[in-house]
Design goal:
3-stranded mixed sheet
Length: 178
């Protein structure tokens, strides 16, 4: 069984985002935390993925670990009313970071910033999977570039140089520290 203090701290981080997490926030009453359960086996991995976003404002995040998923689904993200729900099918640092990027961009980027990135990358759609393949959507390109930059994984579908340039574009457009 997981130590209650560790679980509360992990949930507080997920609830308010790393940039706002102060020691007092980790002691927030349970009723202010989202209703989410991170299985003990995944707590360290979730904490490591959240740590990759230090200095970036995340929305409230609820993690779900469904028992069954579509055959090719690794994870997916939804954003509603300032809360991101991340469903994790393939539990890996890569999948967690990838889906957290979607939470960050849904919460932090403006439509103008998204359009700027689309123009720089020569793409037409930010998130329209009916009209364009997965990697021709700006949201996915952003997630691939971020996970590459943070996890030092060469993205085979884009190439290292392209991922590096696209992440540099995000840093510039979003005003992130380099």
């Amino acid at each position: 069984m997981t130590d209650n203090g560790v679980m509360r701290k992990l949930l507080a981080i997920a609830a308010i985002g790393l940039t706002a997490c102060a020691p007092a926030a980790a002691q927030a009453p349970a009723e202010t935390l989202p209703t989410t359960t991170v299985p003990a086996a995944h707590e360290a991995l979730v904490a490591e993925a959240l740590a990759a976003f230090e200095g970036m404002e995340l929305p409230s995040v609820v993690f779900e670990f469904p028992e069954t998923c579509a055959e090719d689904a690794k994870g997916w993200h939804t954003y509603r009313d300032g809360v991101s729900t991340i469903k994790v099918c393939e539990v890996s640092l890569h999948t967690l970071a990838h889906e957290l990027v979607h939470a960050w961009e849904a919460h932090s980027l403006t439509d103008g910033q998204r359009n700027d990135l689309l123009g720089r990358w020569g793409l037409e759609y930010w998130e329209n999977y009916d009209e364009a393949p997965w990697l021709k959507n700006g949201a996915e390109r952003l997630a691939v570039a971020f996970t590459w930059s943070v996890l030092n994984e060469a993205p085979p579908m884009m190439g290292t140089d392209r991922a590096l340039q696209e992440w540099q574009d995000v840093i510039e457009v979003a005003g992130l520290p380099s």
